[in-house]
Amino acid sequence: MTTFKYWIQAARLRTLPLSVSGVMLGAALAEEAFYNTALFWLAIATTIGFQIVSNFANDYGDGIRGTDAARTGEARMVASGHITAKAMKRGMILMSVLSFFSATLLIFSVFGIRQILWAFVFFNLTLLALWAAIRYTVGEKAYGYSGFGDVFVFVFFGLISVGGTFLLFTQSFDPSILLPAYSIGVFSVAVLNLNNLRDAAQDQSAGKSTLVVKWGAASGKKYQYFLLISGMVSAIVFAVMRHAETVQWMFVLAFIPLLVHLKTVLLNQELSALDGELKKVAMSTFLFSLLMALFL
């Protein structure tokens, strides 16, 4: 039971609501009832699998590099010695296989063999997602150590998560979907940026060159304002374009904790104190996605 507890911690359950936000919103925009389709829940299971792969890979990659040795906030399992690097690598591979199987089942359940071109596109997106999840911190040229993690999160948590789910269910493309996809993407990047702000000192010591390390904490905070404010504006523009009625603006309730968060960032004097804000932004993103799915 103790070992199982450590694997649950390595999966980082508090990140999972963030990972399903884009799929939930993309399915709703495709007019798929998100509570009664087996394909929707298979898509949710697949994206959770990808997130856990990413979390295991991050724990493994940062652990063997020593980046997590003095980390603030949630403990990392390899760095703390609760799970060996070898075991974490096996867990990462196992979750990759399970996620690949889930994604393949989803793709062929939707497209079969008659729409082989669409199946081929999504099959390659699956491989790319797994590669990106692992290479974020694993390998000699892990892109998370060069400041490209923000791009990965924006593309996969936003554009591909929302837009890809919409394409999966409709086999069509609506350019306006890019607006809520942008919102989910930048909200997700804001969670990563908070993490990088919190860990700036340790990352710099370990040679992890995140954008915060490159730009400095002051610019990192301004970046946080840009991410969240632009994401909120994008969602409002989308609602206006859809001629949403007053009741359909309920998603703005999710903006209240985000605005409170921005005030906290503005007044912050100790970066390590931002750890508690991670859950606030992640859950606000999930709430935004849920409310927009329900009311739009």
User: Which whole number gives the mean pLDDT?
Assistant: 88
Figure out the total of helices: 13
Number of E-type strands: 0
**Low-confidence spans: pLDDT under 50, at least 5 residues?**
none
Backbone structural class: mainly alpha
CATH architectural designation: Orthogonal Bundle
- The secondary-structure element order is HHHHHHHHHHHHH
Can you tell me the number of structural domains? 1
Strand fraction: under 5%
CATH class: Mainly Alpha
Report how far apart the termini are. Answer: 43 Å
Helix content: over 70%
Main sheet characteristics: none
Q: Might you state the CATH topology name?
A: Farnesyl Diphosphate Synthase
Rounded Rg: 19 Å
- Globally, the shape reads globular
Topology:
Blueprint: H1 2-11, H2 16-29, H3 38-65, H4 77-80, H5 85-111, H6 116-135, H7 149-170, H8 178-198, H9 200-206, H10 211-215, H11 217-241, H12 255-267, H13 277-295
Helix pairs in contact: 2-3, 2-7, 2-8, 2-13, 3-5, 3-6, 5-6, 7-8, 8-11, 8-13, 11-12, 12-13
